[in-house]
Design brief:
heterodimer; A: alpha/beta; 16 helices; disordered N terminus; B: mainly alpha
């Protein structure tokens, strides 16, 4: 089974795209999305790899027959691509005769690939790219992106760089978020006598620590409100801080993590250990009763750090269940360690891949384009649950209420003023490795069973042992 | 001994083999064929392939890329301090959790087989926790035992202001054990009730006529006759406990990205063996190693079961003589 997109397939697609464009020109004009040119600041780096683009400059001597419509199998849940949207697509699809849906379950997906019967399209994370490419699962879509009339490379948000790996372009976010943006409850700030922080200004980790101390509310030993319920994506936190000084967590060949020997890493972990000792962040000895997003809307946490999808959670919470009027829930930028710049790419972000083993790459691409750039993408942008991966769809992000406007302006500021370069992802171990290792040693430290230095050294040892084991296992 | 048993016993003594006519046998095998096929394909096949995988570096996806690594995975398992820790925690949970759980089920069954008022209601109430999905059960227990916002601490605080117990972080194993007992008592109670109801009434009456008091009737008639149920409960509970996984993961504090759902890292006290296997397989993607750990767990469970079976002749009473 060949997973390669042949030149003939590619030319067919070009012809079809041209025909589609011509037909679209004859159709009734539809309301256009207002396309704004978003200035990409100097700090933003889009790691688009150089790719040789095959331009179909000359039409083939004879028009190739259009491929037969194909049936596709997609591993995408109805929550993200409804049956109604799928029906609408099928009503207008040229290359897709039908779509069978399977649940996007990781185990099932592995089994399908192992049995050489993978779905044509599957839903995965940008953080999965190094691993799935190593496994040889996704189709390289570089040429399709370079010639698409819908999904244009220069319209892509920098976050899509997660899907570009070692010279290939393997997919695209369905939506994304700058996951380390800070959200605050202004009512808690007012109650604590703190001025509400400026939303379009750089704030440091040290600022947030001071706020957390003032915002934490206790009654005896009970924590009534935690000052800061951070996300505890330890690997991402460390990587963002290191990236402020152009440093990386892993060495170039990913065979080693720099934890104990990197002073910045030690400083960051010491910073969190101190806040945990003070009891102003959730920690292994005083964990959240639920999860930080829930704590935030319920008033159990004054500050959290998640991305724009918290917009959907706040809006989706009944007003009587919100701890304060909705306007008091304010979005701030991500944080800076050194006080000079903010690094805040998504931690991964969900998107779609097309399987290299697909028998119908053009049909799969037709659906891919529709989902990523057509009406479903516009609907997602309007939903307020994530930011569109296409810059041109940004104006559709909700801006109706004061709350919407504040969050919209905050994300626009974030995209324009912070470093969005995707973080380094290790193809050998999952992000859960570092989190698990640190979380275990953090607990032992807080219980007084080991020192902080030992906790950091143990974390380094465990992560690097895992890397060695994994690399050795892969041969 | 029944008539048929007597006949069979005589045949065995005389060396006569029971022969079933071929035509009858073929129907028997045809009827059980679907089960046999299912067993071979969905049970024995995976089990055997699991043995093979445990000697490879299988990555969970491609068999053709798996490489034979000999005993490496097994050697690594014995050197893995987290695996040992997880094993010790299971032992601890077994020692702390199994005896009270079994005693509680036993006492509940004893009570519910008597003619008490609203017996049906109590039977239902005792059994309901066994019907609840584990996610719901864990969620309820988290809400009850949470350090800061939990119902239990709120009640303690109301009784004695200022009382604050870190249930979820200082006593996570106790919460796990209590939750397990709460969830499993109903099922155990049903088994014991069946055992009690199977005790022949004439034996109790005979003992009564012989002048045995209530304790003596229980000690020398009822208890021996329900020992097979106790034995069954002991073996299945011990095996179930060795495989506990979801509860400690879901009970883990919901600390953001690293601490919610099945991606959670439980408190060290609840880092049981299967959690370690789960982490090695899905976080570290060492499927071959994970299989090796599971086979070691199986070997240990087998030894424990054999020991319990071996001991059963000293304390389990069977009405039918064990040949």
């Amino acid at each position: 089974m060949s997973g390669k997109l042949t030149r003939r397939d590619f030319l067919r697609l070009g012809a079809l795209t041209a025909a589609g464009a011509a037909l679209a020109g004859c159709a009734t004009p539809t309301p256009q999305v207002v396309k704004e040119t978003v200035e990409v600041p100097q700090t933003v780096e889009v790691p688009v790899k150089e790719t040789v683009v095959v331009q179909p400059t000359e039409p083939p001597a004879t028009v190739p027959p259009a491929p037969e419509p194909a049936n596709l199998v997609i591993a995408v849940g109805t929550g993200e691509f409804s049956d109604e949207a799928l029906e609408t697509f099928l009503g207008q699809a040229k290359l897709v005769a039908g779509v069978e849906r399977v649940e996007p379950d990781a185990t099932r997906l592995r089994a399908m690939f192992a049995a050489a019967t993978p779905p044509d399209i599957w839903r995965g994370s940008g953080a999965d790219v190094p691993e799935v490419v190593r496994l040889g699962w996704p189709l390289d879509l570089t040429e399709l992106f370079q010639t698409s009339q819908v999904l244009k490379p220069d319209d892509m948000q920098p976050a899509v760089g997660y899907f570009q790996y070692r010279g290939g372009w393997y997919g695209m976010h369905k939506d994304f978020s700058c996951d380390m943006q800070l959200q605050i409850n202004a009512a808690a700030f007012e109650e604590a006598g703190l001025p509400v922080p400026e939303p379009k200004k750089l704030h440091t980790y040290q600022d947030v620590a001071e706020w957390a101390r003032a915002l934490t509310k206790k009654e005896g030993e009970r924590t009534l409100r935690i000052g800061w319920a951070d996300n505890e994506w330890w690997d991402g936190i460390l990587q963002n801080v290191l990236a402020e000084n152009e440093e990386e967590l892993f060495v170039d060949d990913f065979s080693r993590a720099n934890i104990k020997d990197n002073q910045t890493v030690r400083d960051v972990l010491t910073f969190y250990a101190q806040l945990a000792k003070e009891g102003v962040i959730w920690n292994p000895l005083n964990p959240s009763p639920s999860w930080p997003g829930d704590d935030y809307v319920a008033g159990r946490a004054a500050m959290i750090r998640y991305g724009y999808w918290m917009h959907g959670i706040v809006v989706g919470t009944a007003p009587e269940d919100l701890a304060a009027p909705i306007e008091k829930f304010i979005m701030l930028p991500g944080l800076s360690w050194g006080g000079k710049k903010i690094v805040d790419p998504p931690m991964g972000g969900a998107g779609w891949f097309i399987a290299r083993a697909t028998q119908a790459p053009l049909a799969a691409w037709e659906l891919f384009e529709y989902y990523m750039g057509g009406p479903p993408a516009e609907e997602r942008a309007r939903s307020g649950w994530g930011l569109p991966a296409l810059k041109s769809l940004m104006p559709l992000v909700p801006q109706e209420t004061e709350f919407d406007k504040q969050w919209y302006e905050a994300v626009v500021w974030e995209l324009e003023n912070t470093v969005q370069k995707p973080r380094q992802l290790n193809p050998f171990i999952s992000t859960g490795n570092i989190n698990s290792a640190w979380q275990t040693n953090f607990e032992l430290y807080l219980k007084g069973e080991i020192t902080l230095d030992e906790a950091i050294d143990n974390t380094d040892k465990e992560v690097n042992t895992a890397l060695r084991e994994r690399i050795s296992a892969l041969g | 001994m029944s008539f048929i048993q007597e006949i069979r016993s005589t045949w065995r003594r005389r060396g006569v083999r029971e022969r079933i006519p071929w035509r009858k046998a073929i129907w028997f095998y045809l009827f059980i064929l679907p089960w046999i096929i299912g067993f071979l394909v969905f049970t024995l096949g995976p089990v055997l392939s699991g043995i093979v995988m445990s000697f490879t570096n299988f990555d969970g996806v491609y068999l053709d890329r798996a490489r034979f690594v000999g005993l490496h995975n097994y050697v690594m398992a014995f050197q893995d301090k987290d695996a040992w820790w997880g094993f010790k925690r299971v032992m601890y949970l077994a020692l702390v959790g199994i005896p009270p759980g079994m005693i509680l089920s036993f006492l509940a069954a004893l009570l519910l087989t008597r003619n008490i008022r609203a017996r049906g209601l109590f039977r239902t109430l005792f059994y309901i926790p066994s019907l609840l999905p584990v996610v719901g059960t864990v969620w309820v227990w988290k809400m009850m035992m949470d350090n800061n916002y939990g119902l239990v601490n709120a009640l303690l605080d109301a009784i004695k202001p200022g009382t604050y117990v870190r249930w979820m972080t200082e006593y996570p194993s106790l919460v796990l054990v209590l939750m397990g007992i709460w969830g499993a008592t109903g099922q155990g109670t049903v088994y014991y009730m069946a055992g009690f109801q199977n005790v022949p009434r004439e034996l109790e009456e005979a003992a009564l006529i012989d002048g045995a008091n209530a304790w003596a009737r229980f000690r020398y008639v009822t208890l021996p006759l329900v020992t097979p149920v106790i034995f069954y409960q002991l073996v299945t509970t011990a095996m179930g406990l060795g495989q506990i996984l979801v509860q400690p993961l879901l009970l883990a504090g919901g600390i953001g990205g690293s601490g919610s759902g099945l991606g959670a890292m439980p408190p060290r006290d609840n880092y049981v063996f299967m959690v370690h296997v789960f982490k090695k397989v899905f976080d570290y993607r060492l499927f071959g190693y994970g299989f090796a750990l599971l086979w070691l767990l199986f070997a240990f469970s087998l030894v424990v079961t054999l020991v319990v079976f071996g001991s059963s002749k000293y304390w389990v009473y069977y009405e039918v003589a064990q040949d």
